[in-house]
Amino acid sequence: MGAIVMNHTKIGRGAIIAAGALVPEGVVIEPNSLVAGIPGKVRRTCTPDELEQIRHNADNYVKRLAYYATKS
To answer: Which keywords does this Swiss-Prot/TrEMBL entry list (predicted)?
Structure first.
């Protein structure tokens, strides 16, 4: 989605990098953080409900992949 993550950056598990964000070199992003902006900064911590919704959406994409793979 157009985010740029520079070299030697560490992104924690469950962190979300917003579209268009630029995460500077060497930055460490804590788990479950929401990062946005130029430069990318942690704006807040994602809630457990948000993280669950993201997992749910990812599962739906996988199901659609399997469905459409059989249609071509």
So the answer is: Plasmid
